[in-house]
């Protein structure tokens, strides 16, 4: 099934909304506070085919557009942002293989990614580097028909419960420029591929974030994505546009959720004889929250549409990611203020948004880097 037109998009969004209402919303608070992996939710998402949402139908995926995907991610993030992260890094891994893989790699892996039988993410960041990926130290040394991998990866989403990752390595650590020695491997868990620890976080709970250690871990050479060494960083950078659209959509979801709670609470809470929503100081906050949310949504849709048209959209994705995630941060703070003392209570939802939102400003390229990317493109597109 390939879902392209609006009617079909509506069908899938309705299905996602029903799933969120029945299977996620009632359990999210407890799972989040216990930092418990949402295993049943993941199983349900497998059944719904969400792990194959962007994989082409010929490989068993849903073949959705990026626009529909972004809407799904927004809807999920309104309810519980962590759940969107479980899909996102898996989608980026799948997209790397779909876009760059050999025919054999696509046939061997995409159907298994689509069902979620193989599920995971992207392993790029290391203890000593995240933004400067060319400084990675994980090395894959050729030995006969295998690469032997040694190194450590940090902050890897789905690291504990996932079983397959797009692993960024140096196949030639001495080459200059450094990116020419970087490659991307399809790494299934096995001997030498260990999880050294679960990382404790401020928010974004439930989803597993882990440190991974590779100790003489062997990967057959036919798992080198695209079959050519030296293209790994390029593949990852191309995939980051999609990742940034995803994070932007998550920002829209969190901004919307914070606004929803503020709109509701401000009508229930009374001070000086009237609901606080009738005080202009609160109305100004609500007005800004609504405008930020809608502007974030429009920027995200604009970037997703450009991505679907196959256009270069690092500037659009960067703007969407920057604005939406800062909006999520601001809206979560404002929602907390509107809730007064209750905003600081663990019994209300807004404290979660306040803990979840900052991550969005960091992941898939920090917002500082987004500003630099936007500025560089701005100059590039307006050369004098
Ligand atoms: C919960 C969570 C989940 C994550 N999931 C994954 C995952 O699944 N896979 C994965 O590979 N990584 C993942 N990451 C890592 C994430 O992508 C990195 O944390 C991020 O890229 C930033 O890298 P860093 O933490 O090393 O910060 P650094 O690169 O050390 O940056 C520190 C600060 O310096 C700034 N800075 C750096 N360089 C410049 C520059 N040239 N100009 C201006 N400012 C600069 C940054 O903006 C930042 O403010 C995750 C992180 C978290 C917290």
Describe the protein.
There is one protein chain. This protein is of the alpha+beta class. It contains ten helices and nine strands. The protein has helices at 6-34, 39-48, 66-79, 81-100, 103-115, 232-268, 280-308, 314-338, 350-360, 367-381; strands spanning 120-123, 139-143, 146-157, 164-170, 182-188, 193-198, 209-220, 270-271, 274-275. The strands form three sheets. The chain has a four-stranded antiparallel beta sheet with strand order 2-3-7-6, covered by helices on one side. The protein has a three-stranded mixed beta sheet with strand order 1-4-5. α1 (6-34) packs parallel to α3, α6 packs antiparallel against α9 and α7 (280-308) runs antiparallel to α8. It is globular, with a radius of gyration of 21 Å. The protein starts with 5 loop residues before the first helix and ends with a helix. The structure holds flavin-adenine dinucleotide. Flavin-adenine dinucleotide binds next to β1, β3 and α10.
Count of helices?
A: 10
Strand content: 5-15%
Which ranges are low-confidence, i.e. pLDDT below 50, for 5 or more consecutive residues? none
Cα separation of the termini: 48 Å
Return the string of H and E elements: HHHHHEEEEEEEHEEHHHH
Bound molecules: flavin-adenine dinucleotide
Q: What overall geometry do the principal axes of the alpha carbons give? A: globular
Share of helical residues: 40-55%
Largest sheet: 4 strands, antiparallel
Query: Overall pLDDT, averaged?
Result: 96
Would you tell me the structural class of the helices and strands?
A: alpha+beta
What would you report as the Rg, rounded to the nearest angstrom? 21 Å
| Biggest sheet: strand arrangement | 2-3-7-6
> How many distinct beta strands?
9
């Amino acid at each position: 099934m390939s879902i392209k037109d609006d009617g079909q998009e509506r069908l899938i969004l309705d299905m996602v909304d029903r799933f969120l209402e029945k299977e996620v919303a009632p359990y999210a608070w407890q799972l989040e506070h216990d930092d418990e992996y949402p295993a049943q939710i993941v199983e349900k998402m497998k059944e719904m085919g969400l792990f194959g949402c962007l994989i082409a139908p010929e490989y068993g995926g849903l073949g959705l557009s990026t626009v529909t995907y972004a809407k799904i991610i927004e809807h999920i993030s309104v309810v519980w942002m962590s759940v969107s992260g479980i899909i996102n890094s898996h989608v980026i891994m799948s997209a790397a293989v779909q876009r760059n893989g050999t025919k054999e790699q696509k046939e061997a892996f995409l159907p298994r990614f689509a069902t979620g039988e193989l599920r995971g993410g992207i392993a790029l960041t290391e203890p000593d580097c995240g933004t400067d990926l060319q400084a990675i130290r994980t090395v894959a040394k050729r030995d006969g028909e295998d690469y032997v991998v040694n190194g450590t990866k940090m902050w890897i989403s789905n690291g504990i419960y996932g079983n397959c990752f797009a692993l960024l390595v140096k196949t030639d650590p001495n080459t200059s420029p450094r990116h020419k020695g970087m490659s991307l491997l399809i790494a299934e868990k096995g001997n030498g591929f260990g999880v050294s620890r679960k990382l404790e976080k401020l928010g974004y709970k439930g989803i597993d974030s882990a440190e991974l250690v590779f100790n003489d871990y062997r990967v057959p050479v036919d798992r080198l994505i695209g079959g050519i060494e030296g293209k790994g960083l390029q593949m990852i950078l191309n995939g980051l546009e999609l990742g940034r659209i995803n994070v932007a959509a998550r920002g829209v979801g969190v901004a919307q959720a914070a606004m929803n709670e503020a709109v509701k609470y401000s009508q229930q809470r009374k001070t000086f004889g009237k609901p606080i929503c009738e005080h202009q100081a609160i109305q100004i906050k609500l007005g800004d929250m609504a405008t930020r949310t809608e502007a974030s949504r429009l920027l995200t849709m604009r970037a997703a549409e450009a991505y679907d048209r196959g256009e270069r959209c690092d500037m659009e994705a960067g703007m969407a990611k920057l604005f939406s995630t800062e909006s999520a941060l601001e809206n979560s703070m404002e929602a907390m203020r509107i809730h007064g003392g209750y905003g600081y209570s663990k019994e209300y939802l807004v404290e979660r948004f306040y803990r979840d939102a900052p991550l969005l400003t960091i992941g898939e390229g920090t917002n500082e880097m987004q500003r630099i990317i936007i500025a560089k493109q701005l100059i590039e597109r307006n050369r004098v």
